[in-house]
Amino acid sequence: MKSIKNHFSLVIALVSILFSIQVFIIVDRSINAYKENLANNYSIIMVAQIHIPQEQIKAINPLIVNVSELNPEGVIKRLNTKMDQKNLELLKITLPKFYKLKLSHFPSPQEIKKLTKNLLETKSVQKVENFSSNHDNTFKLLLLFKDVISVFSLSIFVVTILLILKELRIWQFMHNERMSIMGLFGAPAWLSSAVLFRLSIVDAIIASFITFIIFSYIESSVWIARQFESIGIEVVVFDKVEDFSLLFAVAILVSVLLASLILLGHKEEV
Amino acid sequence: MDKVIIAENLSLAYSNNETIINKVNFSVNSGSFVFITGASGSGKSTLLKSLYGGLRPEQGSLIVGGVEINGVSRKKLNFLRRHIGIVFQDYKLVKEWTIEKNITLPLLINGYDKNVTQNQVDSLLKHVRLKHQAGKYPLELSGGEQQRVAMARALSHNPILILADEPTGNLDDYSSGLIWNLLEGANTQLKTTVIVVTHHIPVTMGVDYKHFHIEYGSINEVN
After folding, report:
1. Do A99 and A157 share a domain, yes or no?
2. Between the N and C ends of chain A, which has fewer C-beta atoms within 10 Å?
């Protein structure tokens, strides 16, 4: 019973670590998906005196992936009733050229600043509207959200490590006697610590599978899917191969590290 | 006759530097039965501890089974211990293992075959009259029964040397009798060297033995 309790506490500690890692992964993926979504809806308007070819605009900054010239017909049509044809033709020629620039990703404020500067340095570019005020607020909100979740995950991680260190002392006490007795009969270190490593690996496997079940359930949850849908993004909550491999590797690494620390701290009782 | 133990100018001390055994010389022949006696705190158990490398000599030389204990490597010490059977006063049984598994320990460490191990353990359980308790855990047994398990474990791998630290202290007559019979049997039938630290030498010993007495850090043979 006592042994089950000790197993249970390591498994719980490992599940907490794996949980915090996976939550961080999900948040990171959500933010990236949201940024991509924002990038699709976000564009910069550039005003130039003369026509500039698309390729030339794209070459200004690698962030620019798509350029479309805005058609001035709509504005001219509205003036159509008040102006004669000659003046309208003249207006068409003298009217500046408007370009809508699509970017590869949702840029940081620094990237926007640099891009605006690059565009304004280009000959014949008169004005650049980057909607930086709206953009900055959204971007800062995203970063804040990411930071909060990172701090939260880190806190869980630290608390869990402290729990594991406490567990380490219990395990040290539990296994020290057996390891000492085995040592008195000439068992090499690998043999006397074999039980310890076996137990920690079994705990790592149990913890990984518990996490697998939890996140498989979360992934299949309709409520979670709706939440992502409501903010217009699609996120892989739990990749059963990639994410599970990572979590399993972390669990094995932590538990083997724990067993190695016990082995290093082992003092033979004689 | 080969010497299993050779001590020359051997001094033993714990970390506080208080010398417990002071420049003693003695040797033990292979196949002999030796008693070490002395008052409480005289250094009997300390001397026994040094014989399995639990305490390194402060000074002098101590050779056990051809291995110099002073400066011995961990690998060599493990090799030596695989050929020694130790019986501790406090039994030192693994509490979370059944008594059957406890007896198996030296055989497991020495890499014996599973069938050989099972036969040997069955035979020893019969000898110590604990066959019916094989699946029990040490804490479910009485002190005398636990010491019999410890004795069976010490004999399981047919060691060249058995070191026993007060093996019958606090035991009832039945358990004491069984333990002395086993030690005598190992010595006479298997020619195992036996060294026993004790307060009292049993009056009914059926084998020839050597008797060393420790007093004030010196060791003297008693005739």
Report:
1. no
2. N
C-alpha separations of A177 from A180, A208, B22, B49 in Å: 5, 29, 31, 17
Domain range for residue A210?
2-37+137-265
What domains are defined for chain B? 1-83+159-223 (3.40.50.300), 93-158 (no CATH)
Decide: A184 and B92 in contact? Cβ < 8 Å: yes
For the beta carbon of residue A44, count every other beta carbon within 10 angstroms: 22
Per-residue pLDDT of chain B (223 residues; tens, 9 = 90+): 689 999 999 999 987 678 899 999 999 999 999 999 999 889 999 999 999 999 999 999 999 999 999 989 999 999 999 999 999 999 999 998 999 999 999 999 999 988 889 999 999 999 999 999 999 999 999 999 999 999 999 999 999 999 999 998 878 888 889 899 999 999 999 999 999 999 888 887 888 999 999 999 999 998 7
In a domain, A270, yes or no: no
Count: domains in chain A: 2
Q: Are A78 and A25 found together in one domain?
A: no
pTM above 0.90, yes or no: no
B68: helix, strand or coil: strand
Task: Compare all CA atoms of chain B with the CA of A188 and give the residue at the minimum distance.
Answer: B78
Other Cβ atoms within 10 Å of A28 Cβ, number: 15
| Residue A250 and residue A143 share a domain | yes
CB contact under 8 A, A178 and B96: yes
